[in-house]
Amino acid sequence: MILEATAITKDFKVKQKKFRALDRVSFALDEKEVLGIVGESGSGKSTLGEIVGGLQKPTSGSVYYDGKDISNLNGDDKKLFRRSVQFVFQSPKETMNPYFSIRTILAEPLRINYRKLSKTEIERSISDMLIRVGMDPKNTLSYRPSHFSGGQLQRIAIARALLLDPRILICDECTSSLDVSLQAQILNLLVSLKKEIGVSMIFISHDISVVRYISDRIMVMKDGHVVEIGESDEIITSPKDSYTKTLVETAYR
Questions:
Q1: How many Å from the N-terminal Cα to the C-terminal Cα in the chain?
Q2: Nearest by Cα to 208 from 200, 199, 197, 217
Q3: pLDDT exceeds 90 at position 20
Q4: Taking a C-beta distance cutoff of 8 angstroms, is the pair 151, 182 a contact?
Q5: pLDDT digits over 154-194, tens only?
Q6: Rounded Cα–Cα distance for residues 157 and 151 (Å)
Q7: Which terminus of the chain is less hemmed in, N or C, by CB atoms within 10 Å?
Q8: The whole model's pTM is what?
Q9: Are 126 and 141 in contact (CB under 8 A)?
Q10: The total number of structural domains that make up the chain
Q11: Rounded to an integer, what is the distance from CA 171 to the centroid of its chain?
Q12: In the sheet where 68-69 sits, what is the strand order?
């Protein structure tokens, strides 16, 4: 087990009233596993992803990375966690400075985290990673984000996340803004990277058919609760909860 969430609860204040986005959610992620988290908008899946990735703090509950509570990490342990857990978001363009070249965007995390790397080593690393995700460095590095399509930008975003050699990749609706053909390309890329690199993933989506394609296990969420969790094929072929049955019927009818 590489990551464990225990009784995660998250409350927000909305117009002076408390809104519970997550209610005692627990799950575990194994090494080299892809866990799909699926649910409709408002189910709490993205909030959960941000909490286990350290971008938000829970109201109560704990997240453990390699057996250590991430809320208590300090110094080198905290830096290691931040490098080891990387995100790929729905809109890659919004995560990139429009005035920077792709070279600068990709080099920045390496410069921050590996200060001893030379310019030549950084250039080699980002070029190799771009090739790995299906982009030509010669036609990529000098351009700004506006030069690229959504699918190309998502490949670049994946390259940026993988440059720090993470153990966990949290993909939050990373294909939902793409058309069907581009969506398939990104999913196939992630599947091949999983086999090649062995990175663990949390794959968040509202589309259970997409989640099934990439995930070893699926966790279904509704209104901040876990409805059910199990092996992907079992969830699809023998859903136990009526909500899961509705998601499956909608996706495969």
A1: 36
A2: 217
A3: yes
A4: yes
A5: 999 999 999 999 999 999 999 887 888 888 999 999 999 88
A6: 10
A7: C
A8: 0.94
A9: yes
A10: 1
A11: 2
A12: 17-29, 3-14, 60-65, 68-69
